[in-house]
Amino acid sequence: MPRKLLTTLLTVTLAAGLAACGSVKDDSDAPSDDTKADASSAFPVTIKHKFGSTKITEEPKRVVVIGDGGTDDVDALYALGVTPVAVSKDAFAADGVHPWLKDRVDTKKTKLLDTMNGVDFEEVAALRPDLILATSDFTLEKNYQKLSAVAPTIGYETAWGKQTWQEHVQVVAKAVGRQEQAAKAIEDTEDSIAEVRTKHPGLKGKTYSLSIGNTPAKIFTIASEDDFAAKLMSEVGLGLTPSVKNIKTVSGSPTGELSFEQLDKLDADLVVIAFTTPQLKKAFESSALVKNMSAVKEDRYVVTDVATISQLRSPSVLGIPWALDNLETGFAKLDK
User: What is the chain's alpha carbon radius of gyration, rounded to the nearest angstrom?
Assistant: First the structure.
């Protein structure tokens, strides 16, 4: 992928709010006949969203997911026991599959679509979808009319990146007739968050910073408690470090921007950051301001991967437990 395009997508993901291994699950995870009957009885349904109202007359059999701005629709489908016929691939993963979905996505059953450089509408039409989910597609403003001409299409409710992960599950569940299963899927993920809080009581009242380095001499960090990541971190007991709350933000989003002369503002009880290249990591860690951070001196500095930061910034029902597990080492440092 061209570096400029990679940087653009990362910045967009951050502004929103911004590898596990395993075998593919077998047919024992498929919905029972009773579940299928319950789904069929849920139709017709009409779902309102920014681009209008979409009516679904019967249970969808061939669902396609379009979206490079998050995995909410994909996660929700798998959590509800529905296998899509195609999804937008993860542009940052070598195999195109989001790391927390590697034990769920069977590429023999689900085609991976390359939509980073635009949607191939003929390719989508050839899949014969009876439902297109695109609530995470940040290019939907220009894509909706063409997608909806192919099949009933569900867009985001008011604006891209504004719906909570719970709302995404509920919308998808209504679209595919699995509303009863939605409550259990949401409960399971909320329980995983509560488990972190219970396991690590030392998190309560501590501060953190959460950032990404994807541009030379600049760091992007969450700078508002309104960010989805900040809300998630607050659920495990952590609060955003005050030193980043009044910094320059990116286009009015919850994402703050720091020059290398301001890196000391990232210091907190826990400093979490990801880098897109080893060179950016080296440049960051070479800074005297970073070396003098209390978090660095006291081993409370954690480098994670971009997928983890992106998942925290744009959380989804199956990705949340995976991302929190990736921060386990950092959480444990605050229990000491």
Answer: 20
Distance CA 217, CA 103 (A): 37
pTM of the model: 0.87
Q: Does domain 31-180 have CATH number 3.90.550.10?
A: no
Dump pLDDT digits (tens) for 198-255: 999 999 999 999 999 999 999 999 999 989 999 999 999 999 999 999 888 877 778 8
DSSP state of 249: B
Residue appearing with tokens 């020059």: 259
Contact 288, 260 (CB under 8 A): no
Task: Tell whether omega for the bond before 278 is within 30 degrees of 0, i.e. cis.
Answer: no
Q: Is 253 exposed, middle or buried (0-12, 13-18, 19+ CB in 10 A)?
A: buried
Going from N- to C-terminal start, the domains of the chain cover 31-180, 200-333
Fold (topology level) of 200-333: Rossmann fold (3.40.50)
CA dihedral 69, 75, 76, 81 (to 10 degrees): 150
